[in-house]
Amino acid sequence: MSDEDADGDGDGRSQVVEPAVVLDCADPERLAGFWSTALGYRRTGGEEPYVVLADPGGRRPELLLQRVPEPKRGKNRAHLDLRVPTLEPHLTRLLDAGARRLRGPFDDRGWLTVVLADPEGDEFCLIVPPGGLPTRG
Q1: What is the pLDDT of residue 42?
Q2: Contact partners, residue 42, CB within 8 Å, separation at least 6
């Protein structure tokens, strides 16, 4: 498959791929409030078993919260990193919204990191990159 045929159908046209992040959970309604606060997203819809959260500016991937019957077991195989210019006020805001601190802050090769869990125990990291965040135009 060539770059000119990114969708693999052989017609030579490139298709845009738009990623979305899906988080399995027991209670999407409960987590919608937490993740809306954490990411600055808005609820944009969804039908059972989904709640859809989206970036108001339309530049970042959607977050779909999907109700699943099985409970979370063990460590996440994938997780979100929330990159911020400074730990505060973000760490306090997330803890006030229902996050739990699991570890840190600690230095991870120059990246100041705190490992947190959402209200259902899904791990994510709050990270300050070395040199801060780049400005986006």
Answers
A1: 97
A2: 36, 53, 54, 56
